[in-house]
Design goal:
globular; mainly beta; 2 domains; Immunoglobulin-like; about 325 residues; about 5% helix; 7-stranded antiparallel β-sheet; 23 strands
Length: about 325
Amino acid sequence: MKRFMIAATIVATLFTTGTLHAQMPYTFGVSTAAYQPLTGGTSLNDTTVWDDEMYKVDIPFAFRLNNKTINKLFLESMEIAMPDTAGNMDGLPLMSTDLVDRGIADSLQVSLSPIRYKTDGTTGNRILKIEIANAGFADEFYTDTTVDDYFNMQIWLYENGNIIEYRYGSSSVVGFADYFPLGMLTGFVKNINFSSASFVMMYILSGDPSAPIIDSLTQTVINTGLTSFPDSGTVYRFTPKPTGIAGNHRMLEMNLYPTRTTGQLYIDNPNKTESTYKVLSLSGQVLKYGSIKQGRNTIEVNDVPAGQYLVRFDYDAGFETQRFIKL
């Protein structure tokens, strides 16, 4: 059994490369919508039980992933979706744990966890929908020979706007801490290379799954992902960042430093437009707020108690969040 795990790759990379800098190409939003299982779609595994298989889905329209046109996605062990099978590429980490078809525990060896897809909508407004249905967890099966825990999720790719959505259905994930020791790591990864176990940047959703923040994993400390599995009806949406004035540039990520400070934070705003900031406790309490102008800005945090905090930057089309530690 092959065990490709995003979490292991992250740990190895963090301790060998140190701090990284890159731009998150998407704004993030969370909402709720009733989960609708796919009907009438194309099956990728038919009745075959899967464990570490890779399946290809052809995209019926030109989709841009991080501003690069792709025409297919490969589902690697149902843990990550990628536009190719080798080299450096951006990808969509779906599940940072080893997954199995729940039919693996059945003597009949008939799939109970269908992998399927379909396209809805008319030309110009089509949505490719990929579903991983009733999937189980390998850690449970190979430890206890049971597959009682399960989840349902879909990945939607929008022709109009190049939007990505993760949609979650019913689940029972009693062994969450066993499957996700670093928390559930899901989001967007830039330039991952499996052969060298490296990547430029991984943006994970972190914290409460009903109101997560984006953590860019730029620190040498290991940050945690989602603290529990998302409830049924949860929708995570990644929208390409808008162009700036006259469409000449994208909204660029703020550069916050130092990530460990005793009194001051500096924020370099590379955009021509202002934004606002909020200093938040990990529980969401607003401690400070203000505006961020173009160029270098200073935030005084002398009066903030020692601990970990978030700085949230809000734009018209979304927001981004970064961490710092007050010493």
